[in-house]
Design a protein that fits this description.
Blueprint lengths: L9 E7 L31 E7 L10 E7 L3 E7 L6 E8 L2 E10 L14 E3 L2 E5 L6 E8 L50 E8 L9 E6 L5 E7 L9 E5 L9 E7 L5 E3 L24 E9 L2 E10 L6 E8 L3 E5 L2
């Protein structure tokens, strides 16, 4: 096992081989220097250190090397050889401090054989954590088995209007209908702000590094997100769970209510930054729903409510459709890594 760098600040990370989703985008390609870190641009500032505990390495031959990327003002990628069936702890030295994003991926070969074109067999969604001196923060990275699929390439017609920030001479050129004083298209008014907005989203259910995709619904202040999956990691994956997007979210600061039609209503108050996916729906069926389903998801953050009413439909072999009505504003993003 190789380790590069030196340090003084330490965070603790736990990596599990559970086939469970954590929070936002899975790695699509890594440029690894096995056993070492790479520093790309930006001011390095103070270097930090983290401990990663790997438990229950799969013994089916799919994992021989685990790589972790720590991204702050610059990025550090370090890889470690592991032994199937065993658990181990290794140290990540020379990582950024402050708010750091941790991603991980696993490969079936020794780290020395991993190349930029190597395809991971397991991958995680990123988890954000704050690396600071004198504190130890537990960060869980849930690795899920990556899937394969065919990717189609098509040619799309040019857009009928210009998006926010693109140059313009008149409002008619912009999707928002407004050309700003700086001669760029202004953002569209938020139709959901302070009221109810219904939108339909198509979530890819095939292709991509994980075989599908997911819809991320964020609260207006970005503190909390609701994630809805579609065949993400394996055919039939149908999850709904929350994650915290900023360090201001700590256990007890946010009340989450999950009300799936036909299931008992559930309430949670443990949502916290750096803990990955939490407050999952469908507890009685091992966190997996059955399409079609409808649910109401409510977040109360210090008296400020956000609510999403979701109707979800899909199949294990195709795309999913989510019809979402939002109260309290926010944004929506479809991810297909």
């Amino acid at each position: 096992m190789k380790v590069c760098g030196v340090i003084g600040k330490r965070e603790a990370i736990v990596i599990n081989n559970r086939i469970i989703l954590s929070s936002a985008v899975v790695l699509s390609a890594w440029f690894l220097t096995p056993g070492c870190s790479s520093k790309d641009g930006g001011d390095s500032g103070t270097l930090g250190s983290a401990q990663a505990a790997v438990t229950n390495v799969p013994s089916d031959g799919t994992v021989a090397c685990i790589a972790i990327t720590s991204t702050g003002s610059w990025a550090s990628t370090q890889s470690f050889d592991v032994t199937p069936g065993e658990s181990t702890v290794f140290t990540l030295d020379g990582i950024p401090t402050g708010t750091v994003r941790f991603d991980s991926a696993a490969y079936p070969t020794a780290c020395a054989l991993v190349t930029p074109s190597s395809v991971p067999t397991w991958a995680s969604l990123p988890v954000l954590a704050t690396v600071t001196e004198g504190q130890t923060t537990m960060v869980t990275l849930d690795l899920q088995q990556a899937g394969g699929g065919a990717v189609g390439v098509g040619f799309m017609p040019p857009p009928s209007c210009r998006s926010e920030g693109q140059p313009c001479l008149a409002g008619g050129e912009c999707c928002s209908g407004t050309c700003g004083a700086d001669d760029t298209c202004a953002p569209s008014a938020d139709p959901c702000s302070g009221g109810t907005c219904a939108s339909t989203y198509v979530i890819p259910g095939t292709g991509g590094i994980s075989g599908g995709g997911y819809l991320e619904l964020d609260s207006a202040n970005g503190d909390v997100s609701l994630n809805l999956t579609c065949n993400y990691g394996f055919a039939g994956d149908d999850e709904a769970f929350f994650s915290a997007g900023t360090p201001s979210v700590t256990a007890g600061s946010v009340k989450v209510t999950v009300d799936i039609q036909g299931d008992p209503e559930e309430t949670f108050d443990d949502l916290s930054f750096g803990s990955g996916g939490q407050d999952r729906a469908f507890a009685s069926t091992f966190d997996q729903g059955t399409w079609p389903w409808q649910g109401v998801f409510t977040v109360n953050e210090g008296g400020t409510p956000t609510q999403w009413t979701v109707t979800m439909n899909g199949s294990a072999t195709g795309d999913c459709t989510a019809i979402v009505s939002a109260i309290g504003g926010g944004t929506a993003t479809v991810h297909h890594p």
